[in-house]
Design a protein that fits this description.
five-stranded mixed beta sheet, about 20% strand
Length: about 300
């Protein structure tokens, strides 16, 4: 009689939602993940951070220190650090984005949104002349009440004030460029805009399925070709003023139709909520709000883990 086929247990994948400068939440979430997964399996897990490490919370500098330390503390884990829209803007201010591939100036990225410059108080200090649009918005000045978040703006439209302060400089100061350590700059410059992974297990109504996984901070646009999007995301095409897969809302919520033909998990953070429907996973319980937990999801089980568990 034939032996039953040995089925290899799928690798554990942990996808961590937006952290937004909250070091204590990150530390608590990390130990909860280790306890939930079990120490030996956790040691070899694939950990995908879904982006937005900075802004809003008080400890961006400590959060980045923590993330940088992981590969040496957990040498058998694999770590993927996605770029969120906040991280892209932080990197833009520090001059860490790759140059536009066509040789154009970053100032070309302002044109489409110039009518918002005054309202959003774009940065006009040292070095602004050739800064990507998002760097100028990030370090700009925005005061008043943010209705969408139900809180006051913290420095800028990105709430970047606490990030400047975590490095010991006032909001909007060009001194931040000197204050951010080289290893933090290297980390920010190395963030990927998209990550693809084959053979990821996920529990579905039909049982355990092996799928391709695409991780991207906000999602993929539904009315643009997937290959075209993946191409410019992998290339980090900085000609684009506003990178929708990192910053869009409704337009990137669903899985693009063409990906339903070959089952593909699309996982994101960004949206300030947790939404798990079929193969579309959105993991951002926190949204950078102080009283909200930071969340992660485990695959294949789709189990949600919070820092408050």
């Amino acid at each position: 009689m034939a032996e039953p086929k040995a089925t290899t247990k799928p690798r554990t994948v942990c996808c961590v939602g937006d952290i937004h400068g909250y070091i204590t939440k990150l530390q608590n979430l990390w130990s909860n993940l280790e306890n939930t997964v079990g120490p030996s399996e956790f040691q070899t897990a694939l950990i995908i951070f879904l982006g937005d490490y900075c802004d809003r919370g008080p400890d961006t500098k400590k959060v980045i220190d923590f993330l940088i330390s992981l590969p040496s503390k957990y040498p058998n884990q694999s770590h993927v650090f996605l770029c969120g829209n906040h991280d892209l803007a932080f990197a833009a201010f520090l001059g860490l984005l790759p140059s536009p591939p066509d040789g154009s100036d970053f100032s070309e990225t302002w044109k489409e949104y110039e009518m918002n410059e005054k309202r959003e108080g774009w940065y006009k200090g040292e070095g602004y002349e050739n800064m990507h649009l998002q760097g100028r918005r990030w370090a700009g000045r925005m005061t008043g009440f943010n209705r969408a978040k139900n809180t006051d703006y913290k420095g800028s439209i990105y709430d970047a004030g606490p990030t400047f302060e975590s490095y010991g400089v006032p909001h909007g100061s060009a001194d931040l460029i000197k204050a951010v350590p080289d290893e933090h700059k290297k980390f920010l410059a190395g963030l990927v805009w998209v990550h693809e992974e084959d053979n990821v297990g996920i529990e579905t109504n039909e049982g355990l399925q092996n799928c391709k996984l695409i991780a991207v901070h906000a999602g993929l646009e539904k009315d643009k070709g997937v290959e075209e999007q993946l191409k410019y995301l992998k290339a980090k095409d900085t000609r684009i003023s506003k990178v929708e897969p990192l910053s869009g809302r409704k337009n990137v919520w669903n899985i693009p139709e063409e990906l339903t033909k070959t089952p593909t998990i699309v996982i994101s953070g960004h949206h300030a909520k947790v939404h798990i429907e079929g193969l579309r996973l959105i993991i951002d319980q926190g949204g950078g709000v102080e009283d909200n937990p930071v969340a992660a999801v485990l695959l294949p089980s789709k189990k949600l883990v919070l820092d408050t568990d």
